[in-house]
Amino acid sequence: MTRKALSAPGKLFAAFALGCMTFMPLTAHADAAFQKWIRDFYPVAAREGISADTYRRAFAGIKDPDPDVLQKAAYQPEFKSEVWDYLDSRVNPYTVKIGREMLARHGRTLASLERYFGVDKHILLAIWSMESNYGAVLVKDDKLHYVPQALATLGYADAKRAKYARTQLIAALKILQNGDITPKEMTGSWAGAMGHTQFIPTSYLLYAVDADGNGHKDIWNSIPDALATSANLLSKNGWESGKTWGYEARVPRGGARYAGKTLTLAEWQRLGFVRPNGKAFARPGERAQLKLLAGEDGPGFLMTSNFFTIKKYNAADTYALAVGLLADEIAGYGGMVQSWPRPDGTLDIKEKFELQTRMKALGYYNGEIDGNFGSGSKAAIAAIQQRLGMQSDGEPSKPLLDVLRKH
């Protein structure tokens, strides 16, 4: 096709491509295919109203894919961890303690949001904990990714998530173009979830709120904006004010056959399902679905509509359960009564905290007492096991805790 034969749109897109070539030159040490993908994506962005200046600012200095994004994409703990391990790392004395501190610190904001949106303030705190450890991950560079680069990486190299990534990248560029945040500040997870409460760009565009009234919807730096944005999402997706997310329940003999069924709480009670703390169901006419997250040997949960609203945030049952349980503990309602069917020799959450405390007292561990056993905790365990003549596998266990209790 000759230059004269180009239509008006064709001339426009040719100019777009030329502009992108200008601000993204190939270099000897850059990933040429990735840079080509970014150049080729600009016409798609332009059709969605993204200016050349916004695109240039978004990708200035970006030469290669994010090396950590694809590795993280392959691992999602909601779907790979045992439910008790997942909950232990998220619903524990540490997260409850910090949650109560945040409730005291931001009580006025939380009370205002609860009145305006009708969403339980303790649920908002639990989501904040789950998403960013009350903002702590936002100051850890190794946990953060530049969102346009992360999404471009997925669009370029992850066929499974390419459609998602392209959609989110367009939304991220719109956020930059709106001026709510600078490119430097637009950090997030490997999948593009952003800020204190980890909103993906399309959800940000739908639900972001300027709660502090400064003219910007800023979920990265404004705690009121971040919490209000979460409350807005839950409210618009059907949160029922003044109602709980669900109930822990004792499953009667043979009751596992009802898993997945939805009945009123009064009907569940007639079938023998009762709360293990002895309390009555607050609204017997309310409908609830039976969930057995650890199978028929584990505790039961009767999930009401708010549980499924929490899942609009994250579709994993374990995520929504963790939010509900943590919210209840922050509020002082108490934790679970029944035990999970853990394998013999493994530790419950209280024992995990005790093991870390004893390791620290012996000088083998100097990290946070949080019940999580990452590389630091496991290295300390391996050192102790070696000293004691035990198998040095670095894994926390009751036999190890029993030995340390004697020291």
UniProtKB/TrEMBL annotation:
Gene3D superfamilies: 1.10.530.10, Bacterial muramidase, PGBD-like superfamily/PGBD. Residues 354-404 form the Peptidoglycan binding-like domain. Residues 34-328 form the Transglycosylase SLT domain. Residues 1-30 form the signal peptide. Keywords: Signal. InterPro entries: Lysozyme-like_dom_sf, MltB-like, MltB_2, Peptidoglycan-bd-like, PGBD-like_sf, PGBDSf, SLT_2. It holds the Pfam family PG_binding_1. NCBIfam families: MltB_2. PANTHER family: LYTIC MUREIN TRANSGLYCOSYLASE, MEMBRANE-BOUND LYTIC MUREIN TRANSGLYCOSYLASE B. This is Membrane-bound lytic murein transglycosylase B. It comes from Rhizobium paknamense.
